[in-house]
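2024-03-11 09:14:02 DEBUG pipeline.ingest accepted 1 chain
2024-03-11 09:14:02 DEBUG pipeline.ingest length=324
2024-03-11 09:14:03 DEBUG pipeline.predict start
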Amino acid sequence: MPARLLAVALIVALPIAALAQKPPAGAEGYPSRPVRFVVPLPPGGSPDLVARILAAELNWPQPVIVDNRTGGGRNLAAELVAKSTPDGHTWLLTTDNILTANPHLGKTPFDPFRDFTPVTQVARFQFLLVVHPSVPAKSVQELVALAKAKPGALNFASSGNGSAQHLGTAMLQYLAGIEMTHVPYKGAGPALADLLPGRIQVFMGAANSLLPHVKEGRLRLLASVGAQRLAILPDMPTIAEAGVRGYRHDVWSCVTMPAKVPPAIVAKVNADIARVLNTPETKARLASQGVDVVTGSPQALARLIREDYERWGKIIRATGMRAD
């Protein structure tokens, strides 16, 4: 290209590039101070990892500071964010059960629809159904048959009443028409510690923590629990494929903010989170930890929250589950 034409092309392109970097109208000057990113779980878990990647990689002029707030069935962290000033400087990285199941398990200090602004889904966590090798069941069908033959004889662990493990196994019992005994723990780690020696027989948990024990023969893998098979385990059926019709337990997390945050700020945060999480490097890093990146619009997240809220409501009412 002749030098004169090249110069003209660069001059024309500069404003376009500059416009592409501009925040949405109404979000100029945001953030004006550090952003508080509240995570209702202790450091080290998969949701915390997602939050810390975002905090480190957003590269905003103001820092994003992860604040781990545990307790109260994870409701305390949600309440803190719900009652914060709606200026976009306080975020919640919430797991799905806080918004979709906890309100059915007991009174919560927030309303999942009135008190939050959906921003984007960020991840789906790979969960598996396993049993201790002493259990004479090598498939979901055999586990169901065993539980029907001996109601209440099998124990299943969870990281607490209303946790993802509890909800998923309760749904399995409800749809399969079986009864097992729930043993809640204060976290997945203590539950796994009793599962490995066989004090607990059945567990539903994160793939990254269970697969090493499956490979060593210390646990037996029966199925994945989501709507689709896992890419890392293409030959392993889902629970629904294994015969429990209608079963789907997708464990996911999302970012929300207090209600009434300006739409322009929501649009900026949504776009920047998608930019960070959808890089090949970040997706590969999270996939190695059993986390699938899933981003989308605020409207899509709002629909997902409503859908799972109604689905879990039916299960919880039918099973009589209650929070701690």
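2024-03-11 09:14:41 DEBUG pipeline.report The radius of gyration is 22 Å.
2024-03-11 09:14:41 DEBUG pipeline.predict end
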